[in-house]
Specification:
The protein contains 3 helices and 6 strands; from the N terminus they run ααβββββαβ. It has 107 residues and is α+β, with helices and mostly antiparallel strands. The protein has a domain at 36-107.
Length: 107
Amino acid sequence: MMMQPAQTRHVLQAVPVANPKVIELSGIANAASAKSLPSAIFVLENGERLETRQYLLTHENLYLTIDRHQRTIPLSKLNINATTAVNRERGIDLRIPVDRNEIYLGF
């Protein structure tokens, strides 16, 4: 059976549109408590320490903004043990993504 163009439009219009969903993974109850967290610190292999609230961690790179300057740093240049330890001391559970399906975001 072939459908005419008018029938096709009718079928497409009958499909309901799903509402977007927000899934909170951080476990933080409200935005006020999220803003009270200190900035994250990233320790590079050369000892340089970068402090920021605006960052994106992927399985390959760290993207961050400090004083309106954006930087991209390969994770291979990040001292992951020192970075996670210093953030744990500050009360930040910083997680390093293990594959391309994960990201970690701070703002």
